[in-house]
Write a structure and sequence with these properties.
The chain has twelve helices and six strands. It is of the alpha/beta class. Helix 1 packs antiparallel against helix 2 and helix 5 packs across helix 7.
């Protein structure tokens, strides 16, 4: 609406200019002798009006004439623009590369962190702080008291897990032996493996008994959070009294109680194999 009003004003001024032109052309044949003071005044007024009209007509046309010049691109400006675009392309590529690297850093930062063995031990034991564990078939290579009369060997694959348990838990090891020499062999094997130096275990927490049920008595007296054993009868007897149990068996047994778990080895229970 504003544009149409402006256009009407311009047309009106043009018609007025044309009218003035006609008037001036009619006055030009008049000779100087016939001009009086009144005629000279009219002529001067018409000349002033003509100049004023010409300025009005010229002033709005100037921006319209200059506007295309600003929009038109000269060869030099085109070259500069092309050069600028050319220089911006590798810069954009560099920016994209930096964004990609930043995204990789963020992805790596938020990736799930693999838990340490100590964290796994705590999680698996449900934050239990006292653990009792049988030696034969779990910590030692040997599986019977008769074998302990000859030798005692700590399983190398279980040593790391055992040391982590001693750092976090109050651990008691126990076994049935046939003689005092077997006790000495067991203690020497544990000492050579570094259990008493690297871990938090002391020799007083290695318990020996002469009968199988003696192990059950030890466990009930100590009231641990976890007991680890290979004998299914012992595990069954203690299921009512112990919060959690781990039954170590090469063949997966049937689960006798909801608080009894099973694994082929102690290290496999903690995911170390």
């Amino acid at each position: 609406m504003a544009e149409s009003s402006k256009e009407e004003l311009v047309q009106l001024i043009k018609r007025f200019g044309a009218y003035l032109t006609v008037k001036i052309s009619n006055l030009l044949p008049i000779t100087l002798q016939r001009l009086d003071s009144r005629s000279l005044g009219a002529f001067a007024g018409l000349a002033f009006a003509l100049v004023f009209t010409w300025r009005l007509l010229r002033s709005p046309s100037q921006p319209q004439r200059r506007q295309p010049k600003r929009q038109a691109a000269t060869p030099s400006s085109s070259a500069v623009s092309a050069h600028s675009n050319a220089t911006l392309v590798p810069h954009g590529g560099s920016s994209s590369l930096e964004d990609s690297r930043a995204q990789n850093v963020v992805d790596e930062f938020f990736q799930p962190v693999k838990p340490t063995l100590g964290q796994i031990v705590r999680q698996k034991l449900s934050e239990g702080r006292k653990v009792t564990c049988r030696l034969l078939g779990v910590i030692l290579e040997e599986s019977s008291p008769e074998e302990l009369q000859k030798q005692a060997t700590v399983r190398s694959s279980v040593l790391e897990v055992l040391l982590e348990i001693t750092k976090f838990c109050d651990l008691y090891l126990m076994e049935r032996v046939l003689d005092d020499e077997s006790e000495k062999k067991v203690l020497l094997a544990l000492e050579d493996a570094g259990v008493f130096t690297s871990g938090g275990l002391v020799k007083d927490k290695v318990l020996f008994c002469s009968i199988e049920n003696g192990r059950s008595s030890f466990v009930r007296q100590l009231e641990p959070d976890w007991h680890i054993d290979t004998n299914p009868e012992i595990v069954s007897q203690l299921a009512r009294f112990i919060k959690y149990q781990l039954h170590i068996s090469a063949i997966r047994p049937e689960r006798t109680a909801p608080n009894v778990f099973s694994a082929p080895t102690l290290e496999q229970f903690f995911g170390c194999v």
